[in-house]
């Protein structure tokens, strides 16, 4: 009986870890997409843009985590970059929700706080958060670089015309959140990699036309 219980526990442990393997492997498979998103972010920062991050619930705290990582790097010697979380100001969030509705809490702030050179990063564990989608759509309308950090199959946000879509492909929200932490740490790190490479942030040269 004790052997059976120990075996069942071991199987459960294997299953818990196994659920986390495939989403991470899929993240590795889309490394080119991640690198392109990071390069685009670095170019926006280089032009004077800032990062604007938002999400609901757990992703709201992720948004604050992302913002502080960029503004106050934990790695000594890395450049601080401008970033803000739209979830940090409770008075603004609740005021907009009361006046214009919950679906507009991020879109309204993007319209009034963002500049066209900025970056909008929306985080959603299932890809179906309407207010996150509306915030990204408002960003796209203003000319911001738009990035969705999503879960599941990407949901409705993934097909809403964003510049970059990064998906932690799991139906388990806990696993999605764990992969998201890895993703935004990679975003931070690769943005700095591009900053440290001379010429990496110059716009591509347009070939001269010969007559």
From TrEMBL:
The segment(s) forming the SIS domain are 41-204
Q: Which GO terms describe its biological process?
A: carbohydrate derivative metabolic process
UniProt-recorded Gene Ontology molecular function terms: carbohydrate derivative binding
Instruction: Report the Pfam families cross-referenced here.
Output: SIS_2 (PF13580)
Gene3D superfamilies, per database record: Glucose-6-phosphate isomerase like protein, domain 1
Q: Which SUPFAM superfamilies match?
A: SIS domain
Cited PANTHER family: SEDOHEPTULOSE 7-PHOSPHATE ISOMERASE / DNAA INITIATOR-ASSOCIATING FACTOR FOR REPLICATION INITIATION
Listed name of the protein: SIS domain-containing protein
Instruction: Give the species.
Output: Allosaccharopolyspora coralli
């Amino acid at each position: 009986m004790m052997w059976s219980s120990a075996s069942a526990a071991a199987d459960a442990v294997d299953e818990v870890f196994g659920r986390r393997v495939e989403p991470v492997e899929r993240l590795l498979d889309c490394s080119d997409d991640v690198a392109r998103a990071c390069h685009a972010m670095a170019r926006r920062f280089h032009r004077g843009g800032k990062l604007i991050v938002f999400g609901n619930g757990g992703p709201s705290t992720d948004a604050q985590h992302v913002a502080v990582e960029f503004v106050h790097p934990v790695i000594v010697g890395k450049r601080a970059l401008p970033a803000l979380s739209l979830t940090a100001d409770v008075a603004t969030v609740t005021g907009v929700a009361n006046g214009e509705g919950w679906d507009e809490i991020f879109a309204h702030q993007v319209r009034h706080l963002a500049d066209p050179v900025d970056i909008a990063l929306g985080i959603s564990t299932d890809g179906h958060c309407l207010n996150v989608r509306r915030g990204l759509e408002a960003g796209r309308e203003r000319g911001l670089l738009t990035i969705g950090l999503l879960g599941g199959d990407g949901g409705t946000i993934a097909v809403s015309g964003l510049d970059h879509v990064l998906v932690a492909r799991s139906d388990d929200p806990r696993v999605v959140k764990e992969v998201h932490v890895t993703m935004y740490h990679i975003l931070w790190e690769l943005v700095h990699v591009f900053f440290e490479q001379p010429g990496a942030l110059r716009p591509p040269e347009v070939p001269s036309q010969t007559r």
